């Protein structure tokens, strides 16, 4: 349910004199109807006429006659009060020309339509022909009037003439059965291929059109890009839809945020807190922070590099009403400065939507003063853009990823290599974490695999069993993703030791590995398509999605791994993997035999 705000001055004056419609959405049945809107009597009393409450369901069109009648009455009332609004002859000519273009295009089959958008150059020509020399003002007027949609940089700077074409495609993403459930299973994350497969290809939209739709969703804050694509490698960008993120759970965020540290706080209270405000805040931060932040429905955690400070933004809804609170907290470094910057960001989003907090707990005076101090007299009025990044870990973590759990001769050989590596590291005061030692009964394997993916260094003991293990490939793909699919960064992060049985050295070997995983993911994909994604549990669905991803990326990953000179003997692995790390051993290491090197009779 959305209510008009009386904050923004221009619509505020018109709203007081005209009629207001308050529409409650998702009223699929009478059980969904609310008695009254979630605003105070004082807010409703500001209007000359009592706002009219209408209930409607986009799902089954329930309430359509009431909605249509209310809209007709509102328009009639405005005409009665203000008469017929007139515009200049030139603007009217441009408006009619665009509408004629749109209407003629609508008569053609969808595949043949050519004027869903027009270029800015074409629009300037329309204005010039109409005797208008300030096309930017005309475009602003037509955008605000709803004739066209334009936002600088969006749609390759083209002007949308057929808004129904774009909105229909975007609203399809909100289809509860076709799309929303799948997005929720993917924790609100998606790629352009996901939307193409689920809805847009079937509807006949071309790839370029689909790119435009996602751009429009980004501009409206419906989603944000959190992982950049790599076109040269055919790696797609990935996006997050904040409204479809999972609820906050006990995650690494709880370990990053130190409740015992001093905390700077600003809070905003609202009689009516619409979800789109929090969504817009998350999207605005997320579009800059990307992978550097942790996101959940109603909040985020992020580290800002310039101030050296952490930030936590959370939404708290009042279960007894439609109101709520947005809380911004910062700690460490120049926390007050970051708090002032993020408070300004929240206020900007409030103003953009015409929303006002009823009460505000402002940052402390010292926080505001610290922000002012950063702006020297000879510098621009606004500080530099915020720089969000991953916070450097207090202690570097080193992991080994390998296939374990079998007692075959090959399995024992893998264990021996890893045992020797861990002992060699310990002799230098370095601990290498291995999952069979770090995991206790009841621990989540997937969480540990994600932790490996973020490791400062990951030793990969590559074997044939590794190449055919979904858990091992998950770990390898996690490192690849956290390196942003960048070859140089990936090679800096990993140290690979390839065992004799691993078939990776020829193009045929790597192709067969990719085929193996495509077949496995294809088998699951067929089941999911036939029976729906609900046949898989949440974590299994995520593994299936990752399987699809690394099935298409494994060739690139293995090619990168095998394109470097690798150690062929264990001694070379120790030098390759440990010599460039600081030796933390407090004294020369005690000489002791490595596992497998003991003399006969030694225990």
TrEMBL record:
<keyword id="KW-0677">Repeat</keyword>
<dbReference type="InterPro" id="IPR035897">
    <property type="entry name" value="Toll_tir_struct_dom_sf"/>
</dbReference>
<dbReference type="Pfam" id="PF16095">
    <property type="entry name" value="COR-A"/>
</dbReference>
<feature type="domain" description="TIR">
    <location>
        <begin position="394"/>
        <end position="524"/>
    </location>
</feature>
<dbReference type="InterPro" id="IPR000157">
    <property type="entry name" value="TIR_dom"/>
</dbReference>
<feature type="region of interest" description="Disordered">
    <location>
        <begin position="577"/>
        <end position="603"/>
    </location>
</feature>
<dbReference type="GO" id="GO:0007165">
    <property type="term" value="P:signal transduction"/>
</dbReference>
<protein>
    <recommendedName>
        <fullName>TIR domain-containing protein</fullName>
    </recommendedName>
</protein>
<dbReference type="InterPro" id="IPR032171">
    <property type="entry name" value="COR-A"/>
</dbReference>
<dbReference type="Pfam" id="PF13676">
    <property type="entry name" value="TIR_2"/>
</dbReference>
